[in-house]
Amino acid sequence: MQVINTIVGLRKTVNTWRMAGERIAFVPTMGNLHAGHLKLVEEAKKSADRVIASVFVNPTQFGVDEDFDAYPRTEEDDKQKLDAAGIDLLFLPSVTEMYGKDAKTVVSVKDLSTLCCGASRPGHFDGVATVVCKLFNMVQPNVAFFGQKDFQQLAIIRTMVSDLNIPVKIRSVEIVRESSGLAMSSRNGYLNPDELQVAPKLYQALCAAHDEILSGEKRYSVIENEAVTYLQNAGFVPDYFSVCSADDLHKADERDTDLVVLAAAKLGRTRLIDNICISLAR
């Protein structure tokens, strides 16, 4: 596994592969890697001749009073995991390498970026879209892999790629969960032992909503209110629990057949997100 820190070095290596006709897959991450990230790598290896991963904790997607400084950085451990997973290149840039001294351009995906997590984290998805667009321009992969846990992020990246005609195929990979049902996340490391016992209830609330909808319940506001009450009683501080159209993430109505239930809630100091998809027969 090569480790490269500069855009010039990255492009030189990638151009050599591209000239040889090799297909390139890309897995962008913020590090502190877990089994969910390694599943992305596993899927990437099936679809390409070369696999590139990046580790970059992106400051522009953290808001005021969020956890940028405290976000776990495990560079050496990440290197070992990616090397063992068999990737070809790790791109490990600095903030200066990514943004230069005075970057002025921001990529913003309207509407989608203001819903759900965007409503409580203004500017977050502009930071995500900007850094992913920059990484796509640097790496120029044929295909890139993202986890479904960040469903809204995935929708925003797909929209950005379509709107800006970026020649990258976006592939999603199903959520990897702990045996308890808790979605794997770098932020799970913030949870104390007691909170780790409570945290799976977020997924349990999603599963209950899933079952209610499949049983024919169309009063989505009732389902949402029940879930919020359940989470509050369990010790969470819910941000939102929303039954949405999977196409545009707007509130679902009974005409929608492809749904996603999106949830975000704080448990102690830790903000957790999760989702579950539902397909209804017409």
Q: Would you write up a description of this structure?
A:
The protein is α/β, with parallel strands linked by helices. It folds into two domains: 2-173, HUPs (Rossmann fold, 3-Layer(aba) Sandwich); 186-272, Pantoate-beta-alanine ligase, C-terminal domain (Pantoate--beta-alanine Ligase, Chain: A,domain 2). It is 39% helix and 20% strand. It contains ten helices and nine strands. It has helices spanning 7-19, 35-47, 75-85, 95-99, 117-120, 124-139, 151-163, 193-198, 201-214, 220-234; strands at residues 2-4, 24-29, 50-55, 89-91, 143-147, 169-173, 237-245, 258-267, 270-279. The strands form two sheets. A six-stranded parallel sheet has the order 1-4-3-2-5-6, with helices on both faces. Helix 2 (35-47) links the parallel strand 2 (24-29) and strand 3 (50-55). Helix 6 crosses helix 7 and helix 9 runs antiparallel to helix 10 (220-234). The longest helix is centred in the middle third of the chain and has 16 residues, at 124-139. It is globular and about 55 Å long. The mean pLDDT is 96.
Task: Describe how the helices and strands are arranged.
Layout: E1 2-4, H1 7-19, E2 24-29, H2 35-47, E3 50-55, H3 75-85, E4 89-91, H4 95-99, H5 117-120, H6 124-139, E5 143-147, H7 151-163, E6 169-173, H8 193-198, H9 201-214, H10 220-234, E7 237-245, E8 258-267, E9 270-279
Parallel strand pairs: 1-4, 2-3, 2-5, 3-4, 5-6
Antiparallel strand pairs: 7-8, 8-9
Helix pairs in contact: 6-7, 9-10
